[in-house]
Design brief:
Blueprint: H1 10-15, E1 18-23, E2 26-31, H2 46-62, E3 68-79, E4 91-100, E5 104-112, E6 118-130
Antiparallel strand pairs: 1-2, 2-4, 3-6, 4-5, 5-6
Length: about 140
């Protein structure tokens, strides 16, 4: 069985994030925010936006070495406009691997609203980590 992200990520599953692209240092993810993902201004909470950016960048880093896990070392985020969507509309996150060393990945991520407007941008550094047996993706023959 092939898992969409190459690994089970319970928090990502809980949010309902889906994966469109996972190859060649690039990722594209989709997230349909619900009312409980909003802040007091009625737009997608910054924590949800940052989570989506983190996952997009990590997925881009892992796309060139899916047998490895990654952990976030550092992340910087800039919010350009509210990530506001109407009910049922989706935010799109794009991750890009900019540079890789043997142990580190340098990435960037962007989030676009349903109109294609850039809402947030991030850069991140990730460390490649060998997966423990219990963290490996389940497989069936």
């Amino acid at each position: 069985m092939s898992l969409p992200f190459g690994a089970t990520i319970p928090f990502v599953d809980h949010l309902g994030v889906t994966l469109e692209k996972f190859e060649d240092g690039q990722s594209i993810l989709h997230f349909t925010p619900q009312v409980h993902h909003q802040n007091s201004f009625g737009v997608t909470h910054g924590g949800a936006v940052m989570t989506l950016l983190d996952v997009a960048m990590a997925t881009a880093a892992r796309s060139v070495a899916p047998e490895w896990g990654v952990v976030t070392i550092e992340m910087k985020t800039a919010f350009m406009r509210p990530a506001q969507v109407e009910a049922g509309q989706t935010l799109v996150a794009a991750g890009q691997l900019l540079h890789r060393t043997r142990k580190l990945a340098f990435t960037e991520g962007r989030i676009f609203d349903a109109k294609g407007q850039l809402c947030a941008h991030a850069t991140g550094t990730f460390k490649y980590m060998a997966r423990r047996e219990s963290q490996a993706s389940p497989s069936t023959d």
